[in-house]
From TrEMBL:
ATP-binding found in the keyword field: yes
GO molecular function: ATP binding
TM segment ranges: none
Residue ranges annotated for the ABC transporter domain, each copy included: 20-252
Family of this protein: Belongs to the ABC transporter superfamily.
UniProtKB keywords: ATP-binding, Nucleotide-binding
Protein's name in the database: ATP-binding cassette domain-containing protein
Pfam family, one: ABC_tran
InterPro entries, A to Z: AAA+_ATPase, ABC_transporter-like_ATP-bd, ABC_transpr_LolD-like, P-loop_NTPase
Length: 254
């Protein structure tokens, strides 16, 4: 059951300099723990890598921060707005207007041209066709995809398709880009190119990035990293394992 978190008390207000901030998030997927007391903060324009092995809770954390999942406990604040207390319509507006998402699968619409795929967030948001097309073409050019603009996604290889997904994520110039294992389906050289493209584009446009990855090389391009293990901050998980071992040692020596 999703319970409404307590309202933040004045002494617990989020730090002024964090654009997106979360405290002590708990979330379980139908009984499977996803997050157990994870806190995170990211400043405007910063690139934060969320790292850790498969199943450690990276996607769950990104989805809670992006307002896709409501934490069972804890708080999420974006730009001093308490996302965890917003109603569904306001959260959807926030997600549409300020956030963007790219995952491991580009999920392009095969019946649309490449530029139309890239322009989709603008077209859905009611931006006039001509302006949406111009913005999409600019992003396709920046990401070295302009030659594909009039083609269908079927003409692209995996790396090109993923760069179109990146253009689509950036076309509305979101405040925050959530990138959930965006390089997972790519080869090493393609991964490096996509990450370079993503970080360069984000930095030049002041876009804050949360990058979930189990790939240490991918995390190296970030400003900071938050490591998770078994749904907890890695340090806390290690400490709780230590505590358990200490307890076992104590009971053995008793
Ligand atoms: N829809 C779901 N239903 C049930 N359990 C889930 C669901 N989504 C995630 N989980 C579980 O929650 C835990 C955290 O999963 P999550 O996807 O957040 O981890 P992750 O670090 O992103 O892993 P990956 O790199 O494989 O995507 C895992 O134990 C996972 O099996």
């Amino acid at each position: 059951m999703v319970t409404a978190p307590d309202k933040a008390r004045p002494d617990q207000a989020p730090p002024q300099d964090d654009l997106l901030w979360a405290r002590s998030l708990h979330y379980s997927h139908g009984g499977t723990p996803g997050l157990i007391g994870v806190s995170a903060g990211v400043r405007q324009g910063e690139i934060l890598a969320v790292t850790g092995p498969r199943g450690c809770g990276k996607s769950t954390l990104l989805r809670c921060l992006a307002g896709q999942l409501l934490p069972e406990q804890g708080e999420v604040w974006f730009n001093s707005v308490p996302v965890h207390t917003l109603g569904t319509a306001a959260r959807e507006r926030l997600r549409r207007d300020r956030f963007a998402w790219i995952g491991p699968d580009p999920q392009l619409l095969p019946e649309l041209k490449v530029w139309e795929n890239a322009a989709l967030p603008l077209l859905i948001g009611g931006v006039p066709h001509r302006a949406a097309r111009r913005a999409a073409l600019e992003w396709l050019e920046r990401l070295d995809l302009d030659r594909f603009a009039g083609k269908r996604p079927g003409a692209l290889n995996r790396a090109e398709a993923q760069r179109v997904a990146l253009a689509r994520a950036l076309v509305a110039e979101p405040a925050v880009l959530f990138a959930d294992e965006p390089t997972a389906p790519l080869h090493r050289a393609e991964r490096a190119l996509l990450l370079r493209t993503l970080t360069t584009a984000a930095r030049s446009h002041g876009i804050t990035v949360l990058l979930a990855t189990h790939d240490e090389e991918a995390a190296a391009g970030a400003d900071r990293a938050l490591a998770l293990l078994d749904g907890r901050p890695a340090g806390a998980a290690a400490a709780s394992a230590l505590t358990t071992e200490d307890q076992a040692a104590c009971s053995l020596s008793a």
